[in-house]
Amino acid sequence: MRCPVYTVDAFTDQPFSGNPAAVCLLEATPDDEAWMAAVAREMNLSETAFVSPRPNGDGFDLRWFTPAVEVDLCGHATLASAHALWESGRVPPARPARFHTRSGWLTCSKGTGGGLIEMDFPARPPEPAGAPPGLAEALGARAVYVGTNRLDFLVELADETAVRSLRPDFRAMRSVHTRGVIVTAASESPRFDFVSRFFAPGAGIDEDPVTGSAHCCLGPFWGARLGKTQLTGYQASARGGVVGVRLAGDRVVLVGSAVTVMRGELV
Q1: Which residues contact 67 (CB under 8 A, 6 or more apart)?
Q2: 179 and 83 within one domain
Q3: Which of 62, 71, 92, 264 has its CA 20 to 30 A from that of 157?
Q4: What value does the mean pLDDT of the chain take?
């Protein structure tokens, strides 16, 4: 199966930063999950997106695979997919890109300026929860707050320094039954409202560079804490990335940039 493949750095306006995703632009919806999983292992990025037009012309089907598993929701690879569709001319620049996914319909639109892309995602606020066995020991940090939604655990630490200095035991974290663990604290910089990191060794990703879907949880959490409906988060990974969040009831609008760094063909 031949198809164009893009590598796109998401949640950044500079190449070789943010979170890279592979985007495979297919002509028809694939039915071979083993093939998609094999391609994702070959790409060896945190996410590979498979985009195909729906038969009725109503948007695109979108699926996301890590090198280990298929996931239900992914922000950065959705942003990368919309960017690739506009750049390739498959969607006109003025028209939103609409995706049917395992998390329902997701819509991406070009912002009013600066090359920003806005993504309409479901809000996933956390509920207070006890820390699962082994989590505190795997993180090596004391939590101020622990919550969970249907995807991830959210762990608030005392300050930004504690978030940045974390050196988790990823082998131990694989025994924690969750998609991922979001670690966060209030930002010490006036540019940002909060900082975060995201760990998902059980899904084959020790640390994700910038995680859009985690901000479906972080946005409502910090919005309630800070009394704000518009926030800016910085994901403090080695590559780093900036995610804007606008709260809209049971939805969140995630805002970020994207840069193409490679184009090729899967043969």
Answers
A1: 40, 41, 43, 44, 45, 204, 205
A2: no
A3: 71
A4: 95
- pLDDT score, position 110: 92
Query: Which contiguous run of DSSP H or E holds residue 136?
Result: helix 135-139
If asked whether residues 18 and 107 sit together in one domain, one would say yes
Chain Cα centroid distance, residue 84: 16
Of 33, 42, 47, 188, which one is the catalytic site residue? 47
Q: What is the 3-state secondary structure (H, E, C) of 126-137?
A: CEECCCCCCHHH
Statement to judge: residues 178 and 107 lie in one domain: no
56 vs 213, higher pLDDT: 213
- CB distance 5 to 51 below 8 Å: no
Percent share of the chain, pLDDT over 70: 99
Tell me how far apart the alpha carbons of residues 226 and 232 are, in angstroms, rounded to a whole number.
12
CATH number at residue 139: 3.10.310.10
Decide if 47 is catalytic. yes
Cβ atoms of 213 and 73 within 8 Å: the answer is: yes
Phi and psi at 42, nearest 5°, equal -65, -45
Number of separate domains in the chain: 2
User: Do 158 and 185 contact (CB within 8 A), yes or no?
Assistant: yes
Other Cβ atoms less than 10 A from the Cβ of 191: the count is 8
Q: Which one-letter amino acid corresponds to residue 23?
A: V
Q: Provide the token pair at 118.
A: 């806005």
